[in-house]
Amino acid sequence: MSEIKFSAEEKALIVEKLKRYFSVELDQDLGQFDAEFLLDFISSEMGAYYYNRGLSDARAVMQSKLDQVDDAIYEIEKPTIFVR
User: Fold this and answer.
1) What is the distance between the alpha carbons of residues 30 and 7, in angstroms, rounded to a whole number?
2) N or C terminus: fewer CB in 10 A for the chain?
């Protein structure tokens, strides 16, 4: 898996969310540097778990759609004397 990278705008938004969470939920002031460091840590140490879950969810959606296509193909299949 390649490194997870965010645009400057995305990173700024996530950092602000971290700072707000620490302030509201933990009653702690999280500085800009610390919030960016925390985001980098979460991304590098835990990001793969979220990434893999996303891939698993996408794979399940794709499999469901492929099953639907497979069923649709069987529905239009013409009967023959040949048996598979």
Assistant:
1) 21
2) C
Q: How far apart are the first and last CA of the chain?
A: 41
Band of residue 1 on the pLDDT scale cut at 50, 70, 90 = low
Which pair of tokens denotes residue 32? Answer: 């800009």
Cβ 1 vs Cβ 9: under 8 Å: no
Residue, of 4 and 18, whose pLDDT is higher: 18
Is the CB of residue 18 less than 8 Å from the CB of residue 42?
A: no
Q: 20, 36 in Cβ contact below 8 A?
A: no
Closest to 32 in 3D by CA, of 20, 43, 47: 20
Do the Cβ atoms of 76 and 51 come closer than 8 Å?
no
Integer Cα distance of 46 and 40 in angstroms: 10
The CA-based angle 28-32-33, given to 5 degrees, is 105
Enter the pTM of the model. Answer: 0.72
